[in-house]
Design goal:
Chain A: This is Hydrogenase maturation factor. The complex is a heterodimer of chains A (379) and B (348). Chain A is an alpha/beta fold. Chain A has helices at 10-23, 37-45, 65-68, 71-83, 105-110, 121-130, 147-160, 174-184, 200-205, 212-217, 228-244, 263-272, 303-306, 322-326, 358-366, and strands at residues 30-36, 56-63, 87-91, 115-118, 136-142, 165-171, 194-197, 221-223, 249-251, 273-275, 278-281, 285-288, 292-294. Chain A is globular. Chain B has two domains: 20-162, PurM-like, N-terminal domain (60s Ribosomal Protein L30, Chain: A), CATH 3.30.1330.10; 178-335, Phosphoribosyl-aminoimidazole Synthetase, Chain A, domain 2 (Alpha-Beta Complex), CATH 3.90.650. The longest helix of chain B has 18 residues, at 115-132. In chain B, 29% of the residues lie in helices and 22% in strands. Classes of the chains: A alpha/beta (379), B alpha+beta (348). The interface between A and B is large, with 52 and 33 residues.
Amino acid sequence: MKFIDEFRDQTLARRLAEAIAAEARPERDYRLMEFCGGHTHAIYRYGVQHLMPPNVRFIHGPGCPVCVLPMSRIDQAILLATQHQVTLCTYGDLMRVPASGRQTLLKAKARGADIRMIYSTQDALRIARAAPERQVVFFAIGFETTTPPTAVAILTARREGLKNVSVFCNHVLTPPALATILATAGPDGVRLDGILGPSHVSTLIGSRPYNVVPERFGIPVVIAGFEPLDVMQSTLMLIRQLNSGRCEVENQYRRAVTEDGNRKAQALMAEVFKVRADFEWRGLGVLPESALTLADAYADLDAELRFPVEAAPTKEIRGCDCPSILRGVKTPTDCKLFGNPCTPENPMGSCMVSSEGACAAYWSYGRFREPNASLSRTA
Amino acid sequence: MIADRRFPVRLDLERGTLELSHGSGGRAMAQLISELFQRHLDDELLLQGNDQALFQPPPGRLVMSTDGHVISPLFFPGGDIGSLAVHGTVNDVAMAGARPLYLAVGFILEEGFPLADLARIVESLARAAKAAGVAVVTGDTKVVERGKGDGVFITTTGIGVVPDGITISGDQARPNDRILVSGWIGDHGVAILSQRENLGFETQIQSDSAALHTLVASMIATVPDLHCLRDPTRGGLATTLNELAHQSGVGMQIRETDIPIRSEVAAACELLGLDPLYVANEGKLVAICPPEQATRLLAAMRAHPLGVDASIIGEVVEDPQHFVQMETGFGGSRILDWLVGEQLPRIC
């Protein structure tokens, strides 16, 4: 694949690995948080950690939208589909996320709820146009990356006067999550030396919003692409910053990220959404001004207003360490449930559901390195 | 065809649709069988019109396999549910090293399904069976109410005979054996996905749907000591390797760069967030053989039209945990796990 294989080249990877090994000082360690699930996925899928010297450690961050969604929101979605009998359209990753009482959207669908897996917001509009008598709700989820397509769908629905479409909005914002992790880092929390910053999110918001990280927290950031060579080059850049005593925002992912980001998309988001007072994040708690909801002018398309449901507050599954894993305090193998009974077939926590979740990446790609990984369901 | 006096008005094979009576066992069903099925399926045993086929088994051990086909869409680039129903079962029989002989075919049809499409499917099924040299000797047709099926489901059951001295089974892989695949991986799944209406991408990729028994015959003629054969259908190559590793109680070490994957397939999977190693194939096989036979086996496969792009992709290793590990093209290594759930697309 042209323009992809170049970023997965073995020779370049070996050279970068050598450069990192030469640059990393043996007397210290480097604890680098890759913010996004996309990075975690690349690190495990391509075996990047394996190419690092032992004192360069990746700490997995919370940048997996499925993983940070609290259970109560899935409960709400199931209630929307069952109590209000709407057609609920959702991206595939959400189908198997555990809700309360061992429920999932997939199980609700099997019991007769009209839940459809879609690939694009446009599919939801198509379904609504084809069945004007059905109420169609789009389960919107994701960081800034997936927000503009939702905005476009809302604007299209308004323009076409589609009365049977609404949006269950769960879009969240990256900078508040990052600030929370850094603010709680310290003696009790996770020690971080540097951040591999989001790639796709940054194409939207630009590199500027990260300036606060070096300024306020004294931690360098390198905005890093999702291909394995991107991750390795960004790691080298972070280590060089740390070794030379610099602390700034650098942009490795220059082929897509600018300082200002995508202004057109930002304008769309500003038109259609407003910032919520607060929003619950799995693992991080209730964070002020960390999520979006529909702006007043589009409130008639807000599924939460059109179909009010009451979901009980989230109760975490006992023993599940997802909250600590999402903050980088623990690794997946620290969790007592990892591998038994929690596996991708039978996920207890959200980090095991999405392929970008840290637990799923550990389990699917890397568990042969873990000494007690024989807790295999095939045993 | 000579007009049958029982049916004064012929079936409308251009515009007609299936009715419940076509599966009722009465005259309408007899007409469907006579004017549609038997037009294409004309094996002597089938035409006897009995509810079973009576035949003398040939010498050797018999193998039997059954497979239900529920593919959507029914017609796809490179095949349709009719040819697939033949290839699927022929291949399952052939993976024991057998020569497939007979097929039984069960149709579950939905009321309202166009007779023209059904005729296309039956014709394609008959053509595939003829090309594979297997006889469709018995069959069954049911019609379910509209909305209770998805057009056409086909179940095929096959019987074949295994030559003496051949013992091929999923539990025969031994450490140091070599693992081979017969060609490009992932074509079928991507061809099907490209036809799903909500995906909207175009590709020239054709399904690889094919009957593999002649390839198998030339493989066992060259290397009678073949240990395992399996066609990596649902769950793809990765899942098949895990099945074999688990069944044989071994591990596997494979090399990503040696697995044949077309760049179009890789690109489509990249776009959809899929992994080609988990995408279904319908005309490929995985073979495991002793190390000293691997080169000869590879040459025999490449000499056959269905194995031109065959490749040795790795080795069987000792591993109490039965992991399939892969050296990535990037230079790292990782587990190649069983398929989990359905392959779902990423959201960001």
